[in-house]
Amino acid sequence: MWVQVIAENLSEEEIAGLKEMFKMMDTDNSGQINFEELKAGLERVGANMKESEIYQLMQAVSLFCFFLLSGMHAYVTSTKF
């Protein structure tokens, strides 16, 4: 699973940074980022993306964000495969 590969190759600092970015974009504190929140967050960090690219990004990272916020990272990285 690709999420496993990512989890095994990210440092704790990188994961913490991703969590902070998620929290920054989740302006309504719902635990989810909708299209408008993602678009505004990307603009705040200087990303210049078309709406179609933002939709693609949302689809690509939705599972990854769930994975990070659910705390499953600790399980996967501490398990030997």
Task: Quickly list its features.
81 residues; mainly alpha; 72% helix
Count of the separate structural domains: 1
CATH class: Mainly Alpha
Query: Main beta sheet, described?
Result: none
Return the average pLDDT rounded to an integer: 77
- Helix count, DSSP H or I runs of 4 or more residues: 5
Task: State the CATH architecture.
Answer: Orthogonal Bundle
- Overall 3D shape: globular
Question: What is this entry, summarized?
Answer:
The chain has helices at 2-9, 12-25, 35-44, 51-69, 72-78. With 81 residues, it is mainly alpha-helical. The chain has a single domain (2-78), classed as Recoverin, domain 1 (Orthogonal Bundle).
Description:
The chain is mainly alpha-helical. It has one domain (2-78): Recoverin, domain 1 (Orthogonal Bundle). It is 72% helix and 0% strand. It has helices spanning 2-9, 12-25, 35-44, 51-69, 72-78. It is globular. The two termini are 12 Å apart. Mean pLDDT is 77; it is low at 75-81.
Write the layout of secondary structure elements.
Blueprint: H1 2-9, H2 12-25, H3 35-44, H4 51-69, H5 72-78
